[in-house]
Amino acid sequence: MTDPDRTHDVVVWGATGVAGRFTAEYLTERYAPEDLSVAVGGRSPEKLDALVDDLTRRSDAWDDVPVVVGDATDPESLRAIARDARVVCTTVGPYTRYGSPLVEACVETGTDYCDLTGEVNWTREMVDRFHEGAADAEARIVHSCGFDSVPSDIGTLLVESFAAETFGAPCETVRIYLDGGSGSVSGGTLASFGELFEAAATDPVARETLRNPYSLAPNGERSGVDPGAQRWPRTDPLRGGWTAPSPMAPVNERVVRRSNALLGYPWGREFRCTEVVPTGEGVRGAAVAGLVAGGLGAFTAAMSVGPVRSALRRYAFPDPGEGPTREEAEAGHFRIGVRGRGTATDGPFTVEAEFGADRDPGYGATARMLGESAVCLARGDVDSPLDGGVLTPASGIGLPLAERLRAVGFTASVDGVADDKRS
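User: That's the sequence. What structure does it adopt?
Assistant: Structure tokens below.
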């Protein structure tokens, strides 16, 4: 979206929430008003004014930050906000409950959009309802621009782009490894997680979305060779050692497969993608993998039972709006490894990427991933054959996002070697 008549480059919607506040702080600390016009939005003028006071105290460059007021359930107020923005960057979840009217407003007004959703059932709904309209309006609706799913999606794009440029062939298989990290979870994140299970309990389309590894692919292309997320401990075919299922795999793998489909299958129609948690070698590695798989399975089973799910959400989950302090968000870290295997005309090859940051993955790092996604969209700094649609980070923004994240301290490296030259 490059319409010069739009007042704001980026509106941070839900700016008084935990993730929204981190994102607004990041953008106003990273950019000056003459470089990027940022507004903060929500439903409470009092809370927004207090946030603006805090933002202007933190940054000498900003004397004021514009405020836009609306309601996530009021389509007309959302259309007015979208009409005046190049990009709406939203942290208001659960998206299943609050997200659809804003997406519709952005499609109607031809406004670019990015969010943090990991709710694949809702993403599937947005694909089915709005992809064609967004493409016609040239509105880029880019979901999952935080820890879900930028590291996995852009990490895979790094691997595949390197493979194509260096070896002239794609990686047919990609493995994504949650190699390490520390961080915290807010009430809003867990509320979104709870909504996913609520939807699966009542909506057959949501259940099918969680069963089908290709459920985010374009309509008519929702089948393939990939069996989907790993469920049990197993030894890794590319790295060796034991691995456990990743709790983020049901989201991230589907996003990566959608990227491949939207880009026209440059990685092949038999492309396979799996995300796992490495647990080490030998008996100890197997035991840890079993514990992780068992714990994840038990939690999933508990969340699948209505009364247990309700009790957990009421008594165990933190309230929406609760989250880490600024210091805690800056103290965490994460590292994601991506390894791809392909075959060129002169033999097999392996490509490896690393993606990470020295900040809490869900907040300090996610604020930068979401914020820089919004900046890419606002400035047209994208590498994509698609002018609009319901997109992914890799298909809607592409490698410019990796370049921007490197500039703010992220690791986003890639290298490869022909397998017959490996030591």
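The first strand starts at residue 8 and ends at 13.
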